[in-house]
Amino acid sequence: MMRRVSILLPASLLSACSGVQAMSEGAGFGSLQFNHLMALFLAITGLAYVLVLAFLAFAMKRRRGAPDPARIKTLLIGWTGFIVLGLIVLTAASFLNDRQEAAVAADRPPLTIKVTASQWWWGVEYSSSDPQRTLTTANELHLPVGRPADVELNASDVIHSFWIPALGGKKDLIPGRSNTIRLLPTRIGRYRAQCAEFCGMEHAHMAFDVVVESPRTFAAWYDAQLKPAPQPQTALAKAGQDWFMAHACANCHAIAGTDANGHTGPDLTHVAGRSTIAAGTLPMTRGNLMGWIANPQGVKPGARMPAVSMTADELRAVGAYLETLQ
Ligand code: CUA
Q1: Would 127 disulfide with which of 67, 112, 239, 247, CB 3.0-4.6 Å?
Q2: Is residue 16 predicted with pLDDT exceeding 60?
């Protein structure tokens, strides 16, 4: 038993140090800076730890005889000097780190994105001076590599926290005020973000994907997202669309190019193009979509989405329709 614990414990701790939701990924300026600072803190505090232990061992070994006062004095002066110098170095490094992060990529025009947190999902809006190019989506963030993004953070109900560990630090989303966090993604990839402030029952199921891509891929994604939803091509999907529009779904969700214009829930115009549903809770598949619609409380207890009474055929049709929203 102990042997198993001694193997599993370090393994689980180490596995927390890498992956799509880890600061150590260093895929953005903020997390890289943090990792450097962390290494410096570890080096200095680690040295202090080793010195204390060495001193303790030395003292235990040498119990007899009066200590030499001159030697004690030198040791104490050296130790105090080390502590003071160490603290000065760490304070200065933290300060400079903060200044560098605040001024990162100040010479490049940032992308401006508004993120609104609600129990328990993320609304995302890319601003543009041209209203035709303002883009609304949800539960997924696409960013071009190498371009700074100023993310304006708002909340509609309670305090949430925006945190993409692989890219940078975290910042709260507070009802009634706007915060801004600047991100600079430095490496292409797909990362996971998580709400980092307890915000109620489904706090743990309030995640989103972050896709860092080349500027060209990002531009193509952006243009595709601006298009209205495609019209359904099969009879089943058409039946699903009709059902969706005639029932409560259309009051809470918007689908561009249709009559659905609700804003209580996530925009679904291109929902099938995202990789997860229910804010990072399930992978996007037709089966998961149907399971989520049929029994939202089973997937995410407490979720604001109500179960709408429907037959199995209607559920199949709505699933088929939503799957066309690429
Ligand atoms: Cu939102 Cu925790």
Answers
A1: 112
A2: no
